[in-house]
Request: fold
Amino acid sequence: MAKRILVTGASGWLGLGIVKALLARGDEVIGLDIHMSPQLSALRQHYPRFASVEADLGEWSQVMEAFRKHEPQAVVHAAAIVGVVHAADIPVKAMRVNVEGSVNLFEAMRFHDVKRVVNISTEETYGDFTAHIIDETHPQKPTSVYGLTKLAAEHYGRIYADRYGIECINTRTCWVYGPDLPRARVPKVFIDAALAGQSYHLKAGGDLAVDQVYIDDTVAGVLLALDKPKHRFDAYHIATGQAPSIDDVARIVRELVPGADVSTSPGWYLHGDKFPTAKKGALDISRARKELGYAPKYDLRKGIEHTLSLARESLRSA
Ligand SMILES: NC(=O)c1ccc[n+]([C@@H]2O[C@H](COP(=O)([O-])OP(=O)(O)OC[C@H]3O[C@@H](n4cnc5c(N)ncnc54)[C@H](O)[C@@H]3O)[C@@H](O)[C@H]2O)c1
Reply:
């Protein structure tokens, strides 16, 4: 099992979670990001097994230098321009980071003989779901710039697997939530409003059914994919297999925070109030259960409860 892992996007929300989980179990970690967050830098004081690298994945020479200097044995790829709205606002940069950056990474792996990468991918690569619950064989026809760039990275990975024997394992996750989610999305918007004693009404999209997975379960799934000695598949759903509606999320927050005034209206959900979402649903996790032993610990209620209690703690200590 690889013990010196390079994590891209290490300052990011999921990347940092993955770095911490790897360090906690004793691995050596190299955290690469285009900018160093204070949380990432702070890890250096506690873990001599941690090294950080400020590098732009879009710059081939910087990626190669990181591999030359730190000699990773495997990679978790979490760096990206993330989100449907964000990527649509800066499509050229999204292509440069998500596609060119991934190819630079695969090339560096080829030159340095690194054989495994777990690429964090997304349900956005599917576009419109054709059923309430879908498995990993569902056609991938993205309807967003973000989904298209993430699909391109997956396909490049397949070519590098065929040509150069690099195993590129894709963990396709869905809407990940938990403490400090860095974007204004459900359930964060409801939780933040409820704790601040403010009202939040989502104008449309209450009936959107979408798989929502707690961050710790996502991180656990990524590590299982990283550790499995031999893979029969190159893609796994790391989600919950359930698709609660956005209205369910609001109801749970109302039940858990007495007096919370959060609600939704029916209609098509809009990303950032402007882009209609693709049709969503649940991601079947049977393959990940069987092949990886993945078993999510949080259903939506438990995940929101946990997020709330951590948010309350951080408000108390602020
Ligand atoms: N959060 C979710 O709900 C979700 C769902 C599905 C998939 N994903 C995937 O998980 C991964 C991490 O997402 P996140 O939510 O942590 O996002 P994030 O925005 O918090 O993290 C992304 C990180 O990538 C870094 N980055 C951007 N451009 C870079 C570059 N050129 N070179 C090096 N680093 C660069 C950013 O600085 C940031 O720290 C992404 O690949 C995303 O597509 C996230």
User: Anything to note?
Assistant: The domain at 4-176+213-237 is CATH 3.40.50.720 (Rossmann fold). Residues 9, 11-15, 33-35, 56-58, 78-80, 82, 97, 101, 120, 122, 150, 173, 175-176, 182 surround nicotinamide-adenine-dinucleotide (CB under 6 Å). The chain has a mean pLDDT of 97.
